[in-house]
Write a structure and sequence with these properties.
The chain has 324 residues and is of the alpha+beta class. Helices cover 36% and strands 18% of the residues. Strands 1, 2, 3, 4, 5, 6, 7, 8 and 9 form a nine-stranded antiparallel β-sheet that branches.
Length: 324
């Protein structure tokens, strides 16, 4: 799926003019002024939202977005679980789990997914900026730029969908993660990219749309680390009904005192994700306390600080979604 979209539509996404360049709003904020948080300005067919109208004025890790102002917009309806797991994928790809605070992650999530027009015909409908991500270049050039491209897949598409959403950042992949020196848009494979399929409020990475094969697996026959990999796959695929299988696998592992600590804590973390997906705040909070209590038994980097940054964020994101 990713390859076919690359052949058909990558040019549209990569050669799109930066939306903010078309804004040319009057009354740009003074460089020394402190603009209010998340002001909204409409100008030249665009909706500019953030602490500033000008990406040159973005502080480190601050966020702004520029969205096409459509007549009679119809918006994507995203489930809370969709936004949380897409944020996890994005933060993984960009190496931002430990760099952003939970408040900054919530703000980035909102700028990415709130009131995103759905009835847009195949193009970049929104650009989101994260301030001072790169090390080199002018101040604006140091910003991470994320393009949100909505498109309709053709009738011959391998995976059926209401829409396809490409989330494309100007960060270039390397074998050690993304290049933080400078950014550019090259192509969907070189850049940090998520190609996601949208159906019934759920976004699923196109690489994880494999529920038909997963549902054929006899989980009783699984052993060793295959149980963990399969449970994770159930939680990542496009079929919410099979998530209960992940729950059953994980609870069996985490409650087995003979299991090695690394396996048990991984199962606990996946079970935590399951409870987040079900919006079980109390259950997630109780399990998180057990995870933090148990992690000293696990060798390596599963410290409370690392776990809080890379996994515990999901609980904060869920609470933010529920409190909106």
């Amino acid at each position: 799926m990713k390859k076919s979209i690359l052949k058909m539509l990558a040019v549209m996404c990569l050669s799109a003019a930066t939306l903010i360049s078309c804004a040319s709003t009057s009354g740009m904020a003074d460089a020394n002024a402190i603009p209010p948080a998340d002001q909204v300005v409409k100008a030249n067919g665009l909706i500019i939202k953030g602490a500033s109208e000008d990406p040159n004025l973005l502080a480190k890790n601050d966020t702004m977005s520029v969205t096409v102002d459509m007549p009679n917009p119809q918006y994507f309806e995203f489930s809370n679980w969709t936004k949380i797991r897409m944020m996890a994928d994005l933060l993984d790809n960009l190496g931002l789990h430990n760099e952003l605070s939970n408040a900054q992650k919530i703000k980035l999530m909102n700028h990415l997914f709130d009131k995103l027009p759905k009835n847009f015909e195949n193009g970049v409908v929104r650009e989101v900026y994260l301030g001072q991500f790169f090390k080199k270049g002018t101040k604006a050039a140091k910003n991470l730029q994320i393009r949100m491209m909505a498109l309709t897949a053709g009738p011959d598409a391998t995976i059926k969908s209401e829409k396809v959403l490409i989330i494309l950042a100007n960060a270039i992949n390397t074998k050690n993660g993304v290049n933080r020196d400078s950014g550019a848009f090259v192509n969907l494979d070189a850049n940090s990219t998520i190609v996601a399929v949208y159906n019934k409020k759920l976004l699923t990475d196109a690489n994880n749309c494999n529920a038909a094969d997963l549902n054929k697996i006899d989980t009783a026959e699984l052993a060793g680390f295959d149980r963990i990999l399969t449970a994770q796959a159930f939680l990542q695929d496009e079929d919410l009904s099979n998530d209960i299988k992940a729950h059953n696998i994980c609870t069996a592992i985490m409650n087995d005192e003979k299991e090695i600590p690394a396996m048990r804590i991984t199962a606990m973390l996946l079970e935590f994700d399951y409870r987040i997906s079900k919006e079980d705040v109390a259950g997630a909070e109780a399990l998180w306390a057990k995870i933090i209590d148990y992690c000293p038994n696990v060798p390596g980097n599963m410290t409370p600080e690392n776990l809080e940054a890379s996994n515990g964020e999901a609980l904060y994101l869920l609470k933010a979604c529920l409190n909106k």
